Amino acid sequence: MVREKGKPYSTGLSFFNEKIFYSALRWMEILIMGVDKGYDHDFYEN
Q1: Most exposed: 19, 20, 32, 37, by fewest CB within 10 Å?
Q2: What mean pLDDT, rounded, does the chain reach?
Q3: Model confidence, pTM
Q4: Which residue stretches of 1-46 are H helix?
Q5: Phi and psi angles of residue 11, each rounded to the nearest 5 degrees, phi first
Q6: What is the mean pLDDT of residues 34-42?
Q7: Nearest-angstrom CA–CA distance, 17 and 29
Q8: Which residues, other chains included, contact 9 with Cβ-Cβ below 8 Å and sequence gap of 6+?
Q9: Confidence of residue 22 (pLDDT cuts 50, 70, 90)
């Protein structure tokens, strides 16, 4: 597992939770700004 700078540890679980967290932020952006700005494609790519 790759250790990320500024973090004490990086496990599969923390990485997974992090992806969920950022996905939630992304979805909030989508809901607020709308899905007509290419967020769909961007979301599934990352």
Answers
A1: 32
A2: 69
A3: 0.37
A4: 12-33, 39-45
A5: -105, 170
A6: 59
A7: 19
A8: 3
A9: confident
